[in-house]
Amino acid sequence: PNPIVAIVGRPNVGKSMLFNKLVGRRLSIVEDTPGVTRDRLYAETDWNGRRFTLVDTGGIEPESGDELLSFMRRQAEIAIESADVILFLTDIRTGLTASDREVANILLRSKKPVILAVNKMDSTGPTDPEIYEFYNLGLGDPYPVSALHGHGTGDILDACVSRF
Ligand code: GDP
Ligand code: MG
Question: What top-level branch of life does the organism fall under (predicted)?
Answer without folding.
Answer: Bacteria
